[in-house]
Amino acid sequence: MNCTIIGLGEAGAIYASALLRAGHRVTGYDPVVTTAPAGVELAPSAAAACADADAVLVLTGAGAARPVAAECLPAMRKGACYADLTSSSPGTMEELGRTAGGVLFADVAILGPVISQREETPLMASGPGAEAFAALVSGIGAPVEVVPGLPGAAMAHKLLRSVFMKGLASVVVEAVTAGRAAGLEDFVRTQIAAMLAGDGEAVIDRFLNGTQKHAARRSFEMRSTSGYLAELGVPSEMTDASAGAMERMAATETVAS
Questions:
Q1: Beta partners for residue 4, in sequence order
Q2: What is the pLDDT of residues 128-179, one digit of tens each?
Q3: Which residues, including other chains, have CB under 8 Å from residue 144's CB and lie 6 or more apart?
Q4: Where is the Phosphogluconate dehydrogenase NAD-binding putative C-terminal domain (predicted)?
């Protein structure tokens, strides 16, 4: 197939190389990056890169999703696949899907770090082009889950996942940093590891059932924790946010009762 990669940063270069190894012809375009993996033909513009493409993979920053689509989609033939792998909002993906005309638009969510997992990074796709995209990248070893719905459905899944994944990462960093400052890093690590190794569903239910019920008491504890982190010289954004959330829950519980 004739494949095009828009955005030749680290992720774009990884997918370009994988498609080349699978026997596809790969054309690339990036307004900033002037080099590409050996075998990738560089085009003078995004539109030129897409003119003969069977599939276009967009791996730019989310802020470029609209202008890239505006340039590429009119240049593509009907029935070709346009896969947007940017971390744009579900609303943006749905909007871009409506402008695709006869091009098969796919909203693709990347569910892991491409730099470490490379082309084997799990993906999720939705929209009219999802099946075509999945068929293409399954040939390079990429696991793709196709979810029903319009473009934006895959990104909705990713962003909801990010509430937990990115929030958890930030909490762990804050907790371990505080533990290190207090000389208790091993203790904090052990506590975190034990929680992550437990029964996940049971932990979720315990959090859902217990957090609001005990929000008032726990909010005071978190304000005390924030003060302690200040004494240690450790930033406490996640602790402060937790205290604020519990104060809100406690107020809601009071009004409801």
A1: 27, 56
A2: 999 999 999 999 999 999 999 999 999 999 999 999 999 999 999 999 999 9
A3: 122, 123, 124, 125, 133, 134, 137, 138
A4: 181-248
CA distances 101 to 58, 95, 207, Å, are 17, 12, 46
Q: Which two tokens stand for residue 46?
A: 């995004």
Q: Report CA dihedral (194, 199, 205, 210) to the nearest 10 degrees.
A: -30
Count the helices and strands in the chain (H runs, E runs). 11, 8
Residue 104 identity: L
Task: Extract the tokens encoding 110.
Answer: 């990347």
Please give the Cα distance from 30 to 203 (Å, whole number): 45
**E strands present in the chain:** 2-6, 25-29, 41-42, 55-58, 81-84, 104-110, 123-126, 144-146
Q: How remote is the C-alpha of 131 from its chain's centroid?
A: 20
Residue 14 φ/ψ, nearest 5 degrees: -65, -45
Give the pairing of strands 123-126 and 104-110: antiparallel
Average pLDDT, stretch 89-116?
Answer: 95
For the beta carbon of residue 249, count every other beta carbon within 10 angstroms: 18
pLDDT tens, residue by residue, 187-220: 999 999 999 888 889 989 988 889 988 999 999 9
